[in-house]
Design brief:
The complex is a heterodimer of chains A (about 325) and B (about 525).
Chain A (H helix, E strand, L loop, with lengths): L1 E4 L3 H5 L2 H13 L3 E3 L9 H5 L3 H16 L5 E4 L2 H17 L3 H12 L1 E3 H8 L5 H5 L6 E4 L3 H5 L6 H7 L5 E3 L14 H4 L1 H18 L3 E4 L2 H17 L11 E9 L5 E9 L3 H5 L13 H4 L6 E4 H6 L15 E2 L2 E2 L1
Helix pairs in contact in A: 4-5, 4-6, 5-6, 12-13
Chain B lengths: L31 H9 L2 H23 L4 H17 L1 H14 L3 E5 L2 H15 L8 E5 L3 H5 L2 H7 L2 E5 L2 H8 L16 H11 L10 H18 L2 E4 L3 E3 L4 E6 L3 H7 L3 E7 L3 E2 L5 H12 L7 E6 L9 E7 L3 H6 L14 H5 L3 H4 L10 H12 L18 H5 L6 H15 L6 H14 L2 H8 L2 H8 L9 H7 L12 H17 L6
Parallel strand pairs in B: 1-10, 2-3, 2-4, 4-7, 5-8, 7-10
Antiparallel strand pairs in B: 5-6, 6-9
The chains are: A alpha/beta (about 325), B alpha/beta (about 525).
The structure holds iron/sulfur cluster.
């Protein structure tokens, strides 16, 4: 199959290795990859900032780039950008009175898949170890990004692929479906609320003890990694009052077979006993958070394409093996 | 009787901005970013709200999962409401005819002031002046009367309005504002409540912070009022057009008492509360309790159609309120916000609400629905209501749970666009400039490629190191997050280099092994 790669602006400019990993995976499956050269961005950044007029040329550019070359399906290593193509581009084009662009955008969007969607639904990959030779002998936790979950309805596609990587240790992230607080310009328009959300996401990731946190959207991973890195450098959360209601506890359960399993469970807010204690309008957390008590260096974020591309012959290295981590992102 | 005429209704020729906006408690007076600052540092608030919302979230998803036709129910709910909005004048007239035929009296109020004046006049005509020199009314929890600031207005007119819902009572006695539409005192804990009761209930005596003791104190305090007060004021969850019936759904039974014991009943209802027919309740009485309290059925559901001789209030009034709803209805991209049945599911799942609480939204309507409804009712130019649509990371959790399928994220983005066209806030100018530049660059892949040619230089200058403190708008990012060092080359450059290599190889006749 001839597959057109939509790298997305953030991967193109910040994380070229994620696009390279995507190409590697697809070639490994025997497909031809093309890169429509005129591509830039899906326009989401402008649309979500309410700048429909400025988004129109960006949408137009995307449609021009992807209609001027021949391909069977297109793929992007980002659920958010793929969702924007289908959910936002036609809407904005129509709002700008550009019906032709709306139709063309919907057509391109209809043939563009998020990476795990393409691998699972179109290319029939069910076992990353068997089908792709994926190998990553490390502990990994996974953040399912909002737009993948709620706009593309990816369900377990991403996590199933990650779980099927050879020798991976998959650790469930408590409160995984909570937003990391990025939200594009939300992070700069309401930086404190965004940082408060990020701090809780970082707390739960740290509590898993996983070496890396993966996911399918470079933008969320950039944000989460940035928070992890800042915490590891300074030992505290910044940019927002140091308050949280999220506490991660370890619980163990015994199943019917008599096996003990350890789980991480997040408790949000005061439980009933705490409710009885007098309210304190202070700024310090009720108890030291996991992160404050157990400062641990090493957690970083990495896009799932790179884990899927990692093999025994050419493994992706983590920080403890000498890899560079920059701004919380694994290079 | 006060007839103030039908509210203005949607016409194809009116621009939404020509329509009057609503007034009252639907206005954010400082920007959301500013107000949220102080709430973010409140540990008590964060604990209480975190605990309550996560509990109710779990309950909700549990009872929703029991129904295999939940999605069909949502679809049916959304369709019924859309039908009402598309034919609102006809449904309002049908409702008026049926309610009036059953002996009820209808008053139309264009805005908060008119509604407050009508209610005041009705109370003056029907509630006696007590020894204190003041009049009294009892109230059932109602969003519409909070929106118009009815209690505050009545107070200035010599009328004391007593809230009878437990949580509303706590809020009222504490001289406070509700912070959640369903659990108004969500920000208070038991000790605070005990203190409020001991300070404000004359006969309460010594109390403990045991919920049963507190509830009993409230019950004693209220029972007396139910039996002696002549006039009650309520809201309505539904107005049924084909029968002229009003309905209130509640948990504590205080509503049932208010709706049946007094001689005069005055209800304030927004024009959007109508449902076409009684049979639509089949859908809504499943959607509402499961979405709001996570219950299969709410404990008390009361319906009345005008008056019933020999049973309940014999003097029954309804004030039908516009207060900006016609304005919201005229906005074709925002009007589905009027479909809201005030279940509060959207705020219970909202990660922003969970951290800032309801007061940060400056309105009777907090959380995701408030972030769209307040600016739709007033227009984005009103005070800081233009900042509300930005109070969201667009994570989409609200849309997923909304029982009437209001696409809140899409309306938020629409209202941001309205804000961009109406307000040009100097605070965001740096971001605006950056986005304008990005639009020019990303409007053409060639320009983007040219810009990326700067990467090797930027990489060299920064040493490929992470960026931890940047000036200006980028500083809002680096206030809490580091940024990875720039890569040496963009993917576009790497790809082009690979292609060149491949071409060279082809030209040199090497085979690809
Ligand atoms: S917008 Fe939807 S979820 Fe939110 S309160 Fe209204 S009906 Fe409920």
């Amino acid at each position: 199959m001839k597959i057109a790669l939509f790298a997305t602006c953030i991967v193109d400019g910040m994380y070229p290795e994620v696009a390279q990993a995507t190409v590697t995976i697809l070639r490994r499956l025997g497909h031809e990859v093309t890169f429509p050269s005129g591509q830039a961005c899906c326009g989401q950044m402008h649309i979500n900032s309410g700048k429909f007029e400025q988004a129109e040329p960006v949408i137009n550019n995307h449609v021009r780039a992807f209609t001027s070359t021949e391909w069977d399906v297109a793929v992007a290593p980002s659920a958010s950008c793929v969702a924007s193509l289908g959910h936002q581009q036609p809407m904005v084009a129509r709002r700008m009175g550009n019906e032709a662009l709306a139709t063309a955008a919907a057509d391109v969007a209809g043939r563009t898949y998020e990476l795990s969607q393409l691998l699972t639904d179109v290319l029939g990959v069910t076992d990353a170890a068997a089908d792709l030779g994926s190998y990553f002998p490390h502990s990994v936790t996974y953040h399912p990004s909002c737009h993948g979950m709620r706009l593309l309805r990816l369900g377990d596609r991403q996590s199933d692929l990650i779980r099927s990587v050879e020798d991976i240790e998959f650790i469930e992230l408590p409160l995984a479906d909570a937003c990391c607080g990025f939200g594009g310009t939300f992070s700069v328009k309401n930086p404190e609320v965004s940082s408060a959300m990020l701090a809780d996401k970082a707390r739960t990731i740290q509590a898993t003890g996983a070496e890396v946190c993966t996911g399918g959207d470079a933008s969320c991973l950039l944000h989460i990694g940035g928070g992890l890195s800042r915490f590891q450098r300074t030992g505290r959360f910044e940019g927002t009052p140091d308050v949280t209601a999220v506490h991660v506890k370890e619980t163990s359960a015994t199943d019917i077979g008599g096996d003990h399993t350890e789980h991480l469970t997040a408790v949000v807010g005061a439980d009933d006993d705490d409710h009885l204690t007098a309210g304190e309008h202070g700024t310090s957390p009720a108890e030291p958070s996991q992160m404050q008590s157990g400062l641990r260096v090493g957690a970083s974020t990495v896009h799932l394409a790179r884990i899927l591309a990692s093999t025994k012959e050419d493994p992706l290295r983590v920080q403890s093996e000498g890899a560079t981590v920059s701004g919380g992102s694994l290079r | 009787m006060t007839f103030l005429g039908m509210p203005l209704l949607r016409s194809k020729h009116t621009d939404v901005n020509d329509l009057p906006g609503g007034q009252g408690n639907i206005v954010e007076d400082e920007s959301f970013a500013t107000v949220s600052h102080k709430h973010l540092s409140n540990q008590q608030l964060r604990n209480n709200i975190g605990h309550a919302t996560s509990t109710i979230r779990d309950k909700r998803s549990g009872v929703v999962a029991e129904l295999d036709d939940w999605e069909e129910l949502r679809e049916a709910g959304s369709r019924a409401k859309n039908q009402v909005m598309a034919n609102l004048p006809e449904y309002l007239e049908e409702f008026e005819a049926n309610f009036t035929a059953a002996g009820g009296i209808i008053h139309w109020a264009r805005d908060a002031d008119e509604a407050n004046a009508i209610v005041t006049e009705l109370v003056e005509a029907n509630a006696p002046v007590l020894e204190t020199g003041r009049r009294e009314v009892i109230k059932v929890k109602s969003m519409a009367t909070q929106e118009i600031g009815l209690n505050e207005h009545l107070e200035t007119q010599g009328i004391d309005a007593f809230e009878t819902d437990l949580a509303e009572l706590i809020v009222q006695l504490g001289d406070d504002k509700p912070s959640h539409i369903l659990v108004p005192a969500i920000h208070r804990n038991r000790d605070e409540i005990r203190q409020i009761f001991m300070d404000k209930m004359p006969d309460a005596g010594e109390l403990t912070n045991d919920p049963a003791v507190l509830a009993e104190a409230a019950r004693r305090h209220l029972r007396e009022k139910f039996l002696t007060t002549k006039v009650a004021v309520s809201g309505a969850n539904f107005g049924i057009a084909d029968t002229g019936t009003l309905g209130v759904v509640e948990s504590e039974g205080n509503g049932r008492m208010c709706l049946t014991l007094p001689e005069t009943l005055i209800t304030v209802m927004g024009i959007e509360k109508l449902l076409p027919s009684f049979s639509d309740l089949e859908v809504f009485l499943q959607l509402l309790p499961r979405s709001s309290t996570g219950e299969r059925m709410n404990p008390y559901t009361s319906f009345w159609t005008g008056k019933t001789p020999g049973d309940g209030p014999q003097n029954v009034h309804l004030v039908i309120l516009d207060n900006g709803r016609t304005r919201a209805l005229a906005d074709e991209h925002g009007r589905t916000a009027l479909n809201c049945i005030r279940c509060s599911a959207c705020m219970n799942v909202c990660p922003v609400y969970e951290r800032t609480g309801g007061h940060a939204y400056g309105s009777t309507y907090p959380g995701p629905i408030g972030a769209i409804l307040s600016p739709l009712l007033t227009g984005v130019e009103t005070e800081e209501n233009g900042s509300l649509p930005y109070a969201s990371s667009l994570c989409g959790a609200c849309y997923d749970v909304c029982p009437v399928k209001i696409n809140i994220p899409e309306i938020l983005v629409h209202l941001r666009n309205e804000d961009v066209e109406a307000n040009h806030s100097p605070v965001s100018s740096q971001l605006d400039t950056a986005l304008t530049g990005a639009s020019w660059m990303m409007g053409d892949g060639k320009r983007m490629a040219a810009a990326e040619k700067g990467l090797p230089l930027a990489h060299a200058v920064s040493g490929g190191k992470s960026m931890n403190s940047l000036p200006g708008i980028a500083g809002a990012w680096t206030s809490s997050r580091d940024i990875p060092g720039l890569p040496e080359k963009s993917f576009r450059q790497l790809w082009a280099e690979d292609e060149d290599r491949d071409e060279d190889r082809d030209e040199n006749g090497e085979d690809e092994t």
